[in-house]
Write a structure and sequence with these properties.
The structure holds two protein chains of two kinds. Chain A is mainly alpha-helical. Chain A contains ten helices and no strands. Chain A is globular. Classes of the chains: A mainly alpha, B mainly alpha.
Amino acid sequence: MKKNLSYLDSVHRDGRIWNLSVMVLLLLFPVVVAVVFGVLPDWKALGVGLVATAPMYWAVGAIETVTFVPMLGAGGSYLSFVTGNISNLKLPCALNALEQNEVSANSEEGEVISTIAIATSSIVTTVIIIIGVICIVPLTPILSAPVLAPAFEQILPALFGGLGVAFVSKNWKLAVAPVVLMLILFIFVPALDSGTVGIMVPVSALFTIGTGRILYKRGVL
Amino acid sequence: MEFQVNHPILFIIAGILIAVVLAQSVFFLVKALKRSRQLGMDQKKIRKTIKTAAIFTIAPAVAIVISIITLSKKLGLALPWLRLSVVGSLSYETVAANNALSAMGQSLGSDIPLTAQQFVNVLAVMTISIMMGIWLVPVIGKKLQGGMSKLSNRDAKWADTFSNALFIGMIAAFLGFVFCDVSRLWDPSTRFVTQTVVENGVDVETKVPVSATSGLIPVCVMGVSALIMVICGLLMRKPKLKWLSEYALPISLVLGMASAIPISLWLS
């Protein structure tokens, strides 16, 4: 008898197959280039380069996985950790879709909605990048015009302004404590800047869960 | 075969990989759409969700194209095209490429062309160092999700609060980040940015002075974007303007970005 898989189980099965296959393919790229051009890597320099880069980004990747998976949903997670740009694109996109459809992130409807939003966003991103790469010669002078530079430098503030209003206004009791804490930390601790915001996301999320639990127990929420 | 960073073979390999990633997105989109019909979800709303997600993605995707242009000067077009179509970012790829190159006495800023061996090294460091999430999700994703659904079965209201707390926590961290340079107003020692310039083929880090008010630029941009979101929210209440709900976030994003141009001129 055919085993009856639930939708979520089948998402996990397919996601595992896709992600592990893509991982193998990505790892094959340097191997294929080495074979085609008949060179071996500079092993010593490769070791030095990896030691300087990998431990930090592996740690960040592990923290991001634990933090983002419950927010992205199953299908959204498999896709997002392949296609990237999670906190600046995929997650805001999913959040906006959940909010627009008024569904809970923990329901199956929420799972479906966030997967649809993230998949659409991934497809559109890939297609725009392809167009950009094909038209790179005429596009370069326009996109690298100094007058436009500030607009692209400020993409995160412009994104989180709109998203912040939508979310904070609906959950303001939950938001007061973490917003105040993060403002104080980022304003008065010089080490916190654009390079460390990724590390502060899980810190802030844990703090919000903690204060949220207290407020919930007291019946404030 | 003689190597160069824009060799057609590199485009073919990158193109195949990107096609696979695109196929994965299409696969999950079709799967979720099918499920939405089985669940009897309103297909009009689903179409709206697709439209909003697509429009919202345009501006950030153009920003990614700009990152590709930046990296392509040294690495050619094929490598950044692939790297920025999959997990990674301009800042990550720059750090990874520089770490790989400096171990071989090269740098991103220099105009000495890359050899095939150096290219393989850069590619390997970039690929391996960001691999965590792509295999960790298959390993622990189901357990993490299972934990959330257990929580939801036990206490649905707390599970919703828990999800909202995660979202709010992330947004609070980014709101804090927007204010990270405000201290330039009262602390002269923070009024600089570090820029890498190329001198005689080597990267040199220099401190470029900035104005006291420059730390307010992101704050003002965020303010404009938030204000536009509030205005959209108020307009959406009119039945004739309900369609705005699909465009509120993309509109506030793009107008916020546009406002950065005059605000930067004014405050820097």
